[in-house]
Task: structure prediction
Amino acid sequence: MADIQLPMLTVDATITRVRRDLTLSTLLKAILACAAVACFTFAGLDNTRFLALLGIGSIWFWLSINSARSSRAAAQSPSLIAAGQFDEAERNIEQSVRTFSLVRTVKLQSLHHLALLRHAQRRWQESASFARALLSQRLGALQPLSRSTRLLLADSLLEMNDLRGAYDAISALHRESMSLAEVLNLLSIQLDYSARVEGWKSMLENVMSKVQLAELLPAPLSARSQALLALAAKKVGREDLSGWLRDRAALLADSQRLVAERPMLVELYPHVEG
Result:
């Protein structure tokens, strides 16, 4: 039997649904807890009290099972996105969004996964919307997730040429304690931002340390980062450094692709047609 295809939720509908479910889950947990306390507080028949507690426990157990299933399904989404299986990831996340869960983290992770998926699909506006929706929530134990979400937000805003928004996201990240992977992604984003605002001199501060870090990035991002550093070196008259970095970038990625992604790099590769 073919899988039933659920109609895709719009960005606004998804965010509204997640916020509604978060509110309902908090309210429902409070109601069930109050009901359980009431069973012990007020006098009554033992059988009635037992049946009431059994009913409350059954509801809690059923909702917890659904939450656990949603949590397991949600955990698969990042690997599906990384493997380029976007349609399957979409269905997986969609199911998590539509399934009610008592656990806040399931719904919050769904927002993060949607931001990650839309970023991978180069749907920048939607990625930024989901990232902002997540960052507006109280994250609790998921607070570390805010860093990777801000990175997605900053990069999406740069792709949309929203320099002010990207600057705000980048500035917030500088106040965080980040992992190596996050530091590397921030470096790539910050070099991209600095090139757009023509901050050539700042880009070349501790340039060799930046080059060493850039080497740890995936090849396409490493090539772009080193090409942007090469452009900065050229702009300030350091031609030897510029040529060295330009050639390193060209070894990692096709120069035509680099120029297609960042047209300003045509200054380094004038042979590439615009």
Remarks:
- Residues 1-7 have pLDDT under 50 and may be disordered.
